[in-house]
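Example for tutorial group B:
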């Protein structure tokens, strides 16, 4: 009887040690992954980050920046584990010495769109001239401040310059924070707005349509890469793989992005 009790206690002790070791190993494998990501990807990441963290045990640190600010920080040598910014610009950074562990790959495409209240009439922007007429007729137009470097506002500025209506549009613009170009439309502060698809899709009171869909410059193509200097390279690659998985790409579609 006594020997049986001692054997039982020994079993419990061994089991406790095994659990402790497993928990210790799990904790040792968990990592913090610092991700530089455009604000245009925030709605997608709001959905997938909790899923990835729960499954992997890793923690994602996500300081969202404009694409221009992301590139500036990378060029200055600021530490990151994974970065997502415009594909062509990312390639240029690699040529300039920002080293990545694997070739930069396309992760998503984001279109510049015109937004308007869903309850109102749909503007006809099917041709360049009709788009020009809509922009001139609008009493107010919102977009994120181009000085912040957002892809949609930078493109929109170049577009109105090409159309010869820059002064007329700027005279009635409503500038917003980065990633919030269409927000003033929801607040009644602007009649129409310009923003990226991934930003507008979260604003359920708005409808939207792509501006100049045949113009390649009207779309932002994002590349993703893991830093060769990452102290958590395995975890960084794990997150990149999750982004490219069917689950990751499905989340991007739900949030206005077209996966590669």
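The residue assignment follows.
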């Amino acid at each position: 009887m006594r020997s049986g009790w001692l054997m039982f206690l020994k079993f419990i002790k061994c089991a406790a040690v095994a659990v402790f070791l497993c928990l210790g190993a799990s904790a040792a494998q968990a990592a913090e992954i610092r991700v530089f990501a455009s604000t245009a990807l925030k709605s997608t990441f709001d959905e997938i980050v909790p899923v990835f963290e729960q499954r992997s045990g890793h923690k994602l640190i996500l300081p969202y920046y404009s694409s221009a600010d992301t590139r500036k920080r990378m060029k200055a040598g600021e530490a990151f584990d994974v970065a997502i910014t415009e594909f062509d610009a990312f390639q240029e950074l690699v040529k300039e010495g920002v080293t990545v562990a694997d070739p930069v790959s396309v992760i998503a495409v984001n279109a510049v769109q015109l937004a308007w209240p869903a309850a109102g009439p749909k503007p006809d922007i099917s041709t360049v001239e009709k788009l020009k007429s809509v922009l001139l007729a609008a009493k107010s137009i919102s977009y994120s401040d181009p000085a912040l470097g957002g892809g949609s506002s930078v493109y929109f500025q170049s577009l109105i310059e090409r159309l010869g209506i820059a002064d007329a549009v700027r005279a009635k613009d409503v500038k917003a924070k980065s990633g919030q170009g269409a927000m003033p439309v929801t607040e009644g502060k602007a009649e129409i707005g310009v923003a990226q698809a991934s930003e507008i899709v979260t604003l359920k009171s708005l409808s939207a349509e792509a501006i100049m869909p045949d113009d390649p410059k009207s779309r932002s193509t994002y590349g993703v890469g893991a830093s060769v200097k990452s102290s958590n390279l395995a975890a960084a690659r794990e997150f990149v793989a999750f982004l490219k998985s069917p689950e990751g790409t499905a989340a991007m579609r739900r949030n206005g992005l077209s996966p590669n």
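Residues 5-28 have pLDDT under 50 and may be disordered. Compare this with the pattern of hydrophobic and polar residues in the output above.
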